[in-house]
Amino acid sequence: MINTLLQGFEEQFGAGGDIFVFFAPGRVNLIGEHTDYNGGHVFPCALSMGTFAAIRRRDDTRVRLYTVNIPQAGICETDVRHPDYVKRDGWANYAKGVLDTFIRRGFAPETGFDIAFYGDIPAGSGLSSSAALEVVTGIAIRDLFGFEGVSQVDLALIGQEAENRYCGMNCGIMDQFASAMGKKDHAIFLDTATLQYEYAPVALTDAKIVIVNSKVKHSLVTSAYNDRRRESEEALKDLQKVLPIKTLGDLSEAEFDAHADAVKDAVNRRRAKHAVYENQRTIKAVAALKAGDLAAFGQLINQSHASLRDDYETSCPEVDVLQQLAVSVPGTLGSRITGGGFGGCTVNLVKNDALEAFEATVLPGYEKATGIKAEMYVAEIGDGAHFVCKR
Ligand code: GLA
Question: Is residue 109 part of a domain?
Fold first, then answer.
């Protein structure tokens, strides 16, 4: 991949000079969905799939951006002093938003640069291709210009701000955090209220984490996502009238149940129920994993799916088919939709000796039911964003 990236870089921008290559991974979230903007816990891990960036300084103020993944989009150009949002720039806005956020935080690069990207995360699949793009842009800018005051956690925060303020997607911190802070063979147990985190080993001896891509990508994902966030916030406001809480993550299931009536709107009440219960499930799931109780972990994964399907309503019929097929296989310990939702992937915990049956049941069954060929990957948990090489 690195050779293809460098070839693309040189074809577009010419050879010569010092070119630095960086990598930031995608992520899969094991459990803790739509909890990160509700002050709850998440439990994602970085994948070995991700996005590479090659960057080189210029001696003027031009910034040129190119992606080997979408050559027909051509080169996007902006000025390092004012990288303005331009709708037709499409994918490049995620990278420009990161540059814009560096500048707003007082880290203004003194020259322009050329940057090219190449990644293998299927776009729109719920595996955070946009977070990987943001975080790899951030680490490339930080290291090229020597902005030492910017930590890995800052890279995550900068990526999130770029996505919220510049691109208009009000995402939480999970994806960028996992991409910046991931650790090989570990998942990150992150408290999004405090950003305190702990690495938990995911050293499964007799099971695998399997990702199945439904290949479904519903339109209006951003607006539906932003709606969920607003509904949760409205529910929180109602609950704050009767409880001294800062976030939905402050509540236990029993506390929520005792005060659920305070949430006037029935839809908002279901959204809040999901946020509260999912946060508690995440805490329990991490304890189960630590105790080596994969069966309990799997049960919580299944409950997460039901809650996302029925209460949070971020699944979709195709992904529900995938999930049903997955849990019909003896040896599937758990299956659920992962990521923002409205399409994308399921994450599955499957016993090693059931992997063949899983593939033979889920893929053809899904194609029969929907006409779509799903893709399946056994997850490899990799490291967070890092420098790769200099050329
Ligand atoms: C998207 C967002 C995350 C998180 C998930 C849902 O991936 O970017 O911040 O909210 O959806 O858990």
Answer: yes
